[in-house]
Amino acid sequence: MGYVEIGPKIKEVFDHRQMKLTDFADELGTVRQNVYRIFRKRHLDTGLLLRISQVLNHDFFQYYSNEPAQTDKNGNHSSETEYQRQLELSRKEIDYLRRIIKLMEEKSVLIR
């Protein structure tokens, strides 16, 4: 697989989704100017790329895979549901970890 410039791929999917730039920026927790920078980036932090994948409901990590992307008759990636399942599991894990952190913070207050 060749070199991937992820910013233009994100822009392409963003344009296809016909989402407002301001809404996209808000969902990412950033400002419009940073979104324009993202569209020009060659590389992105995986955490940010995961968040963008969630917001745009698109697996951008597939562009880094050596496996060819398979599409169904509608042009959707056949593994898209698997990625959605993985994203949902990741969200649940993050929620679980946040609860653990909160409990640990509460215990630390009691110990003091």
UniProtKB/TrEMBL annotation:
- Source domain of life is Bacteria
Where does the secretion signal sit in this chain? none
The HTH cro/C1-type domain covers which part of the protein? Answer: 10-61
SUPFAM superfamilies per the UniProt record, alphabetical: lambda repressor-like DNA-binding domains
Q: Which CDD domains match?
A: HTH_XRE (cd00093)
Looking up InterPro entries in the UniProt record yields: Cro/C1-type_HTH, Lambda_DNA-bd_dom_sf
Q: Could you identify this protein by its name?
A: Helix-turn-helix domain-containing protein
Can you name the source organism? Ohtaekwangia kribbensis
